[in-house]
Amino acid sequence: MRGNNSVQRMKATVTNPVFAPEVWAPNFDRCEHLIERSAHNPVITAKDLPFPAECCFNSGAVRVGDEIVMILNCWDAEWVPHFLVARSRDGIHFDIGSRSIASPPKEYPYAGRREGIFDTRITTLEGWHYITYNVSSGLGGRIRLIRTRDFDQFEDMGFITSIDHRNCVIFPEQFDGLYARLERPNGEGSTGGDIYLSYSPDLIFWGRTELVLQKGTRYWESCKIGPGAPPVKTEAGWLTFYHGCRQHMNGIMYTAGVMLLDLKNPGRVIGKMRACLMWPEEEYEFRGNVPQVIFPTAAVQGGSDDELFVYYGAADSSICLAKASIGGLVQRCLADGPCLPGQP
Questions:
Q1: How far is CA 9 from its chain centroid?
Q2: pTM surpassing 0.85?
């Protein structure tokens, strides 16, 4: 994929004005023209699953040839977690398999956790598709890694973080012979909720950890942030989607942000949108198991070199799709600048 100077001007359709966020969204910096929700949203709901189910949400996806393949994160009617392989030719209509490719660990302290496993992401790298996901524990969640060449046979590579990690996305290429990932140690309050970068020689052991982006650069991301979709390489830098949260009187709102990282030094933010790219507007983003959530997990090439299909979980209840211009997002990130803490 490559960035260019053409920007497709798009306007988001708000079908339910009751949920329009003018009461808090930055009125000086609207972003509707940069991304457009699919008219088919939600593209996957619990009703589409091959068994009675409670929900589906926060699922990684990748383009493989002329298909988009998703590892669908869902819970059945008994709240048992499943990861199902889903395939689509158009990015909207998915054929969903019935076999779960992973199960929660059975040993302490992971056994018996109702949350189990969730939040898949997929990175294609060196002929493999690497899938990261969170494993819940009362002593702190951890990230586990599996890989596949064909989405039929899967290899479990074990845990790849210490305790209390919540989000992890792997870059699709090496840097000076080392693999790289963005991660978010969980933490609470002032002790966590920021995005870090780590390197590895083998995708198992990780170190050289450094801070990439601190929460609180803007109000919409003042509570915590975390990496969303695996970074997308453009001519200008690594286009990186992430989620940002703000706390309010009735809970936490999850929104989507975008930043641009240096091509050779992915720990350096060279541009970042000051406004959030997406915030809950539609009813399916406001109503669900966890209300007021937009949680981006995949950004794959769409119908042209400049188009991205951005998949996101909505209210921890369904999978949704939005379409964006790579060139438009890159230009906006560079125009806004790094937007570091303390800047207006």
A1: 24
A2: yes
Q: In 3D, which of 54, 65, 56, 103 has the Cα closest to residue 87?
A: 65
Please name which of 180, 168, 167, 169 lies closest in space to residue 263, comparing C-alpha atoms.
Answer: 180
Domains and CATH numbers, the chain: 17-336 (2.115.10.20)
Q: Span 197-209, mean pLDDT?
A: 98
Query: Is-contact 56 43, C-beta < 8 A?
Result: no
Q: Specify the DSSP element, H or E, that contains 124.
A: strand 117-125
Tokens of 237: 């830098």
Q: What is the pLDDT of residue 163?
A: 87
- Copy the structure tokens of residue 146: 């599996």
pLDDT tier at 10, thresholds 50, 70, 90: very low
User: 60-100: per-residue pLDDT in tens?
Assistant: 999 999 999 999 999 999 999 999 999 999 999 999 999 99
User: Going edge to edge, which strands form the sheet with 142-148?
Assistant: 117-125, 128-135, 142-148, 154-159
Query: What gap in Å lies between CA 321 and CA 80, rounded to an integer?
Result: 25
Per the listing, tokens 């909207």 go with: 92
262-294: per-residue pLDDT in tens? 999 999 999 999 999 999 999 999 999 999 999
3-state secondary structure of 270: strand
Instruction: Give me 337's structure tokens.
Output: 């600048």
102, 165, 155: which is closest to 129 by C-alpha?
155
Confidence of residue 192 (pLDDT cuts 50, 70, 90): confident
In the chain, what percentage of residues exceed pLDDT 70? 86
Whole-angstrom distance, CA of residue 305 vs CA of residue 173 = 19
- Residue 218, burial from CB neighbour count under 10 angstroms (0-12, 13-18, 19+): buried
Nearest to 55 by CA among 259, 337, 314: 314
Instruction: Name 81's bridge partners.
Output: 75
Closest to 101 measured CA to CA, from 123, 124, 122, 73: 73
